[in-house]
Amino acid sequence: ALEKQCRGVVSCADILALVARDAVSLMNGPFWQVPTGRRDGRVSKITDIINNLPAPTSNIATLKSAFAAKGLTVKDLVVLSGGHTIGVSHCSSFTNRLYNFTGKNDSDPSMDPNYVAQLKTKCKPNDATTIVEMDPGSSKKFDVDYYAVVSKRRGLFQSDAALLADSTTKAYLQLQLTSKSTFAKDFGASMVNMGKISVLTGKSGEIRKKCYLVN
């Protein structure tokens, strides 16, 4: 519909950035101004996503390095991790923490053992279909509960638990659980920062006619 009204003007990249903002806003989250003017790439490969997104098994050193490589700060790292307040995950992204974590039929000691037991009732080894809330009981509402979950050692991913392994990220996490929380404001700012990564403008790239296909 948009392409019919504004043919060749609005990129899929801009649409995604705007929809992400609106989705967060509709879930009780902040509203921020999204810079527009991006153009779409002429290459679309799933391997590019896999190679550029930090894995859920990442430790804090890997996370900081990956974010820095994209021009993002440690604050952006801990703020954007807070996006896990919304949504779900497949068991396959974290069952390594539940079963045979070090090859000795053990679980990840950084996860609350009571939560490990609870997750084992939902996720069996090699389960690739079951989904679990990343922020239990609050996965459809943008709030600071994710940070409370992580502080209780109940974050689903190793990358969540990693936030407790760094003094800067841990301090930010703890601040959000007080009346001085800045998460809503910070999230918008960090989303804008992330939206500036490898942007195509001018005559670079294209405006796709169909978002799932290059022209």
Summarize the structure in words:
This protein is mostly helical. The chain has 10 helices and 2 strands, in the order αααααβαβαααα. The protein has helices at 2-5, 12-26, 46-52, 60-69, 74-81, 113-120, 145-151, 158-161, 167-175, 183-194, and strands at residues 88-90, 131-133. A two-stranded antiparallel sheet has the order 1-2. The longest helix has 15 residues, at 12-26. The radius of gyration is 19 Å and the shape is globular.
Attribute tags:
215 residues; mainly alpha; two-stranded antiparallel sheet; 10 helices; 3% strand; globular
The gist of it:
The chain is built from 10 helices and 2 strands; from the N terminus they run H-H-H-H-H-E-H-E-H-H-H-H.
